[in-house]
Amino acid sequence: GRKNGRRVRRILLHAVDDVIRPLEADDGHRKEPVSLKKLRQGDCSWSTVKTMLGWIIDTVNMTIHLPPHRIERLADILASIPVTQKRTSVRKWHKVLGELRSMALALPGARHLFSHMQHALTNKLGTRVSLRKGVHHALEDFRWMLDNIASRPTRIAELVPLLSSAEGHHDASGKGAGGIWFPAPHLDHREGYEHKPVVWRLKWPQHVIDRLVSDANPDGDISNSDLELAGGLLHLEALAQTFDIRERTVLSKTDNLNSLFWQRKASATTDKVPAHLLRLFGFHQRYHRYVARHDYQPGASNPVADACSRDFNLSWEDLLADLAPYIPENDGLQIWTPSDEIVSAVISALLRRRSEPEALMVEPSQPIPSGNAAGSSVCTWPLTPFSKPSRTKYQTYKSADDEYSRDNFQSTAIQSGLERLKVTYGELHKRPSVWGPTTQA
After folding, report:
1. pLDDT of 399
2. pLDDT for residue 317
């Protein structure tokens, strides 16, 4: 109501005066902490739609999107670099990357499109940057995203991690990839599936195995870390096709540190396989609208995913029997098989071939309400911080066989998964006792 809104606004303005000293007669050129100009422009008025820091936030529809002038600016940037352009100045390229990065903050999937564009700076000649095929492909992806903005509003729940709705482990080897997902009680399963853990596996084609770098094949162009990253994408597809994870936070764990940090950073300064795979991660996230968090699971404590990625000599029946001791009692397991479309897109990325964004858009079946959705839409934050300050130093990680606990995979324990991260997202340093500019007495 208007009366309560006025009271809250008065409290907020007084709070500013409590933190930052109000203006005094002898302060000279110092200005008021609260800008009267901005107040007259409506900055402290109550509204369900506000433009803040260059973004339009709608608290009724819970969406965030670029204002029209920034969409026009994005179009201008992309139009200023035609496909025929072969080089540009380092200064302009830094400006282009900076503006695209600022817009990518609330464009799901955009963070994953920068690998080739970052790699261009590593090959600059003097003050010039070469715009090769990979760079123009990345710009073409941004043009696709520009066309997609109008029909695809960004929901705030796609950007901010909440409590985990599913936890899964994946692994990959020279034979194939596989993994397992444990769902939380409130997660709705899709038609054709049940509300219980999902296992999956995929055997690599022989032509991919033949290109794997090894002692016997030192000239190969696909590394084990590349296969691990490809397995991470298939792993997310397994969950998206079996459960409704729109606007949900999911926790995916791997025993490969390279793929872990590629997934966390969402880009790599390379034009090799990781760049092609991370691009697919972006389109996948944008289509399925989830928030992914990633963590490390030591190889020795990753028995289920390890077996799924290696034991292709076993039938599904025999493999499920071997995995039974690692599954919470009475849960059982269900099997998901990767579709031809997603497998084709992943294999193309491993071979450094470009797939269209639509290749990732395999429409899942309809969700079936679980009947246990109480509290599932409550905005509850995990205790784990979300970013890595520069002062945070990562510790060393050793293989351990005692970190796989069935108790942590009970459906009621899944939501607290982000509080048990082995590789944290950083710690927030305590504020100093004196905040703001100091003034002389």
Report:
1. 60
2. 95
The two structure tokens encoding residue 393? 């130093």
Per residue in 23-55, is it b (16+ CB within 10 Å) or e — as a string? eeeeeeeeeeebeeeeeeeeeeeeeeeeeeeeb
**Dihedral sign for Cα atoms in the order 285, 289, 291, 292:** negative
Which residue has tokens 């429409």?
Answer: 363
Pull the structure tokens for residue 212.
Answer: 């794997």
For 272-293, how does the pLDDT look when each residue is reduced to its tens digit (9 = 90+)? 999 999 999 999 999 999 999 9
Tell me which residue of 149, 140, 151, 162 sits closest to 55, measured CA to CA. Answer: 149
Residue 402: how many other CB atoms lie within 10 Å: 8
Tokens of residue 268, six digits: 């790599």
Confidence (pLDDT) at 92: 95
**Predicted pLDDT of residue 379:** 55
Q: With b meaning 16 or more CB within 10 Å and e meaning fewer, what string describes 411-439?
A: bebbbebbebbebebeeeeeeeeeeeeee
Which helix (H) or strand (E) segment is 336 a member of? Answer: strand 334-336
Distance, CA of 339 to CA of 175 (rounded, Å): 18
According to the model, what pLDDT value does residue 151 have? 85
Rounded Cα gap, residues 211 and 49, in angstroms = 53
When comparing pLDDT for 304 and 1, which is higher?
A: 304
**pTM for the whole thing?**
0.86
Per-residue pLDDT at 331 exceeds 80: no
Nearest to 385 by CA among 423, 355, 352: 423
Euclidean distance between CA atoms 111 and 98, whole angstroms: 12
pLDDT band at 17 (very low <50, low <70, confident <90, very high): confident
> What is the enclosing helix (H) or strand (E) of 202?
strand 198-203
Q: Which H/E stretch holds residue 171?
A: strand 164-172
Does the pLDDT of residue 259 top 80, yes or no? yes
User: CA-CA distances (angstroms) from residue 244 to 9, 157, 191, 284?
Assistant: 39, 14, 10, 14
Q: Hey, how many other C-beta atoms are within 10 angstroms of the C-beta on 404?
A: 17
Under the banding of pLDDT at 50, 70 and 90, the label for residue 36 is confident
Residue 377, token pair as written in the block? 């839409």
Q: How many residues does the chain have?
A: 441
